[in-house]
Structure formats: C-alpha cells, structure tokens
Write a structure and sequence with these properties.
The chain is mainly alpha-helical. It has one domain (2-98). Helices cover 63% and strands 4% of the residues. It has three helices and two strands. The protein has a two-stranded antiparallel ribbon. The longest helix is centred in the C-terminal third of the chain and has 29 residues, at 62-90.
C-alpha cells in the first residue's frame, strides 16, 4: 500500500510541478523578471535573471520573486501529498480490491 501511495505521489508531483512551471512562466516572466534565453520550464529554475547577461534583469525586487517562487515550490510538494492521501483514504476499499 505504501509503495502505491508513493508512486501516486511521485506522479502527481511531476504533473503538479510541470503545471506550476507553466503558470509561473505565464504569470511571472515579463512581469517580475525578464530573461532572454529561457523557456517555459527553465523559467521555473533559479536564477531567473542572470547578472551580466544582456537583456536579463528583475522588474521587481529579487527577494519578492524568490519569495513567490518559494510559495510555488511549497505548493508543488504539498498539493500532491494531500491529493494522494485523500485519494487513498476516500477510495481505500475500492483500491484494495483493484490492487490485489
């Protein structure tokens, strides 16, 4: 049972982090920082604007960008855990029958 919960958590974690990376790019890139050579997924990986690179700079204070990123990362790890736990608890009997 624990291995299946861990597997469910890992799958949900990957999906959640990918979705949050897309939301991060949509909301933050261009509004809080500008980076010329990054992509949708790479915008979620710090540093967001490289110092010394032409065209890379922060529009808002760097600490604000990192604080918001910390909230995104925390949500990315907490939400899949809650969803995995709830799905195991809510459908425990059905899952035990189907996992046999």
């Amino acid at each position: 049972m624990k291995t299946r919960m861990i597997t469910l958590y890992v799958v949900l974690l990957v999906v959640t982090l990918l979705l949050l990376a897309m939301v991060w790019h949509w909301q933050m890139a261009g509004a809080y920082f500008v980076s010329q050579d990054r992509g949708i997924i790479l915008d979620f990986v710090p540093p967001f604007a490289h110092s010394g690179v032409a065209g890379d700079f922060y529009l808002k204070p760097e600490r604000v960008v990192y604080a918001i990123w910390g909230v995104y990362v925390a949500a990315g790890f907490i939400l899949p855990g809650i969803c995995a736990w709830l799905s195991i608890r809510l459908y425990q009997k059905e899952l035990e029958i189907s996992w046999r």
